[in-house]
Amino acid sequence: MKYAIYARISPRGSDFDKNSENSTEMQIEYCKNFIEALPESNEIIEVVRDEFCSGGNLNRPRLKKLLDDVQNDRAEWDCLCIYNLSRLTRSAKDLNTLIEIFSTHKKTFVSAREREFDFHQPMGEMIMGVMTYINQYMRKISAATTKDKMIQIARRGMWPVGRTPFGYKRGLQKDNRLYVDDKKCIIVRDIFEMYASDHYTTRDITIKYRGVLSKSQIMNVLRDKTYLGKICYDKQIYNGKHDAIISEDLFFRVQNKLPQKKEALRPKAYKYPFILSGILFCHCGKRLTAGTAKSGEYAYYTCTDPLCKTRISAKKIEQEAIDFIINKMNKIPQEDIKIAIEELRKRDEERKKNMAPELQKYHSAQMQLLQEKKKVLNILLTQKINEFLILELNKKIEQIETDLQTVDAKINALEASNYSESGLYKAAFDIVSQLNKFSTIVSQTADKSSLRTIIPLYISAIKMEKDRTFHFKMNPALSSTNGTEWWA
């Protein structure tokens, strides 16, 4: 019989000690010895391991590849050998999935540690199910224990788990202390100082650091107490052992300017995928908003004016919008498409031209600082100077290093912004270039979420008249009327 061996350790397992009971090396060795001790002639043709992967689901790279080979009849082995059942899965639901996949494709599996149970007999199946539920229970207990450990780490002022906040980095392995990232911390300070100032808006910050941090990430940075030298975990705040990046005064000035988070209830989520939300208007001038009736059986758009309450079938108006695009989009003159592409190209060139002087300024400053640093180092290395002058020159080098970090951060931010905006313009070129094909795309698209993205590219507003007829306002970018209203 041909065997494959599968081994796994959890994210908190230890594979550095090869003799550890948790290591994949130990599991594989144990399985090999088990297979070699079997009376019949056997062959091990594949060894697969997933390191630092949870057994709570099947989302493991090597296991997914193994199962894919089974389902596509590429697996050359007959039986999968595991150290024990928990290495394969800790979920009863996933176990049933695995059994179904294996049995459908005439594959079996065996547990080297639980060899007394034949999992392919009724009694063995029952025991296997019980063992899996026990493993699932132990996983939950382990999760609670892990959380307690994380709380203890946070209480000691260390970073407990997950990605470190922007501006900090981890130390060496098993070192949970946060360390300041010399380059990123400059960006963090700049974000706080810009937001605290009356001269900049949130949009200014977002544009400046586009490609480095998104708007939501910037807002998270501005609210994060980690930058004060604190550790926040499980809704508790502890004194951290790491250095603060910003002062308390600056932090609280920013908090006073930040908008307060609304504690509103989450709006009702509709199962029907409304694709025209936000662009529908009633004959009275109010918006039409999405809604359902009879437990979601009927979907409609209704007027927000309580005195009007005009209602229209969602399917009816959405199909008319799709038909409008199909009928109108192919009629856009090719000359207009060429004009739009040329306009986009001009704007992209203008953007690059405006950015070039600032980027050149920082590159020049970078060169001057490097030359100045080289001069100071030459003095230290080639000339005889007293101790006082050495101290002064070292201070000078430290200041140059700080200035270099600031300039490097500015250059990185500008280049990242340039790269990001260049990508946006490329996407715009592609969209406009494909306008003559968009009606085909819309007619063939069944995915409602995709339609929700595509339709506003063509239609900026839809107005319903009293007689339930509709007028469509083309997106100004696609209209040949130079921005004036064009209702079809």
Notable characteristics:
4-stranded parallel beta sheet; 14 helices; 14 strands; disordered C terminus; 3-stranded mixed beta sheet; alpha/beta
Task: Explain what the structure shows.
With 488 residues, the chain is α/β, with parallel strands linked by helices. Helix 10 runs antiparallel to helix 13 and helix 11 packs antiparallel against helix 12. The protein contains 14 helices and 14 strands. The N and C termini lie far apart (72 Å). The C terminus is likely disordered.
Offer a quick outline of the entry.
The chain is of the alpha/beta class. It has 14 helices and 14 strands.
Broad structural category: alpha/beta
Strand order of the largest sheet: 2-1-3-4
Structural Rg: 32 Å
* SSE sequence, one letter per element: EHEHEHHEHEEHHHEEHEEEEHHHHHEE
Shape: flat
Number of strands: 14
Number of helices: 14
The profile of the biggest β sheet is:
4 strands, parallel
The share of residues in extended strands comes to 5-15%
Low-confidence stretches: 13-21, 263-269, 476-486
Q: What number is the mean pLDDT?
A: 77
Roughly what percent helix? 40-55%
Distance between the terminal alpha carbons, to the nearest Å? 72 Å
